[in-house]
């Protein structure tokens, strides 16, 4: 072809992604080209007749090869949209999923029932902050709150803090590095209104069966939930009552067929009411346990 226009390059890229079994070839071709040229997708649409020079084409080909090798799209572009946020992500940091948006939605509905004090904001803990998707969404969408965001990975925390600064939310979130509650002050000195977590929940034996772009690229510690998949839930629930105020609650995202087990663990730990919510595919995905139900 004598002149490779943006439109022609996109068509060729889509065909290449189709041959490599990518599930959304048109969308991914557009997102990768927009990233490569530092344009928005809207700008792509109005520049379809623009010719691409050889340097631009070679750069784009490199991104397409990376994608077809299994590298997640989000690690190539360096970002992931989540609710109202555009989050920076990269290798070593768990990529936020759409299901987790429902966890945030239900948490916001629950937290809206809490009485606010003019002297002290509601205290929320996000265990396993990752890129900051949960804690920053709560900080952005709720008033009168402060979030303590905990992660064992210094790499993830660095990304989460950068995301907080990028969205002007750093004053509403305190980032702590450590293994779950070990990062927090002793419960005798500080208790919280709400604990939220999307912990690893894939059983160890199922990790190898995941898609290669997940299995081979995303951090194993953000996926592996132990032999039964619920090890981290058990650890969080076993100590939750020590850290939550009397009328507080804990909210989880859970894997397929895990809602009953997590609900039972919450009930056995003294949570007097447990709510379960289905995601948009009808899967029981969100579990919220209440120490003392609110009206």
Task: Reconstruct the topology from this structure.
Elements: H1 6-19, H2 25-37, H3 41-45, H4 54-68, H5 73-77, E1 79-82, E2 85-88, H6 98-111, E3 122-127, H7 133-141, E4 145-151, H8 154-166, E5 173-177, E6 192-197, H9 212-215, H10 231-243, E7 244-253, H11 259-268, E8 273-278, E9 284-290
Helix pairs in contact: 1-2, 1-4, 2-4, 6-7
How many distinct beta strands? 9
CATH architecture label of the largest domain: 3-Layer(aba) Sandwich
Helical residue percent band: 25-40%
CATH homologous superfamily placement of the largest domain:
Vaccinia Virus protein VP39
Brief write-up:
39% of the residues lie in helices and 19% in strands.
